[in-house]
Amino acid sequence: MKTVIQIVLTIAIIALGYYCVESINKPIRFQEQHEIRKNANVEKLILTRDAQVAYKSVYNKYTGSFDTLINFILNDSLPLVKKEGSLTDSMREAGMTEIKALALGIISRDTIRVSVKDSLFPAGYPVDSLKYIPFVEGGKMYEMGAGVVETGSGVKVQVFEAKVHNNIYLAGLEAQEVINLNDKTEKLERYPGLKVGSLEAANNNAGNWE
Fold first, then answer.
1. Which of 14, 39, 78, 88 sits in a 20 to 30 Å window from 102, CA-based?
2. Do 111 and 173 share a domain, yes or no?
3. Is 14 a member of any domain?
4. Given 89, 119, 149, which residue is the final one in a domain?
5. What is the pLDDT of residues 81-114, one digit of tens each?
6. pTM of this structure
7. Burial (CB count <10 Å: 0-12, 13-18, 19+), residue 103
């Protein structure tokens, strides 16, 4: 009987030790995986922002469609001014302007077209995957929209927003840790996830991680 009790106590001690260690390791593992997933999503949201800014420079508005944005990246181009020569201080003091210098052939300015993809994305980047959330099964996509907001001074501003909720991009990780993270951000009245831009206010396309 004594031996049985000792075995039971030994098992209980081992189990208790395991749960104590796990109570410490779970939050650590969550933070590590959270950081990996956060960085991967932030990278995509920054590229989305860069593409949206380029799209607006051509079409004077943002787009709420990833398909439209990806088509723009793959098939459109941006104007690039190629500059040769520059005015010296003595030229400016003598009254020389850039327009005069161009007319005289002292300097040259040529506008060329460059691929959006080559301008904004690393070589070989899979642009078609831009809309998909990494580490998540089922091909889930970021939410994205575009619109117009009016500032306090009455100026209408083009805006866009792309975002992903914590519950989606952290799916599969420790559920209670995700709940805790949501509670923390909601108490601060912030979006419980990653978001760039805003459909509610002109925020210069800032990301909520910045």
1. 78
2. no
3. no
4. 119
5. 666 677 788 778 777 787 777 676 676 666 667 8
6. 0.77
7. exposed
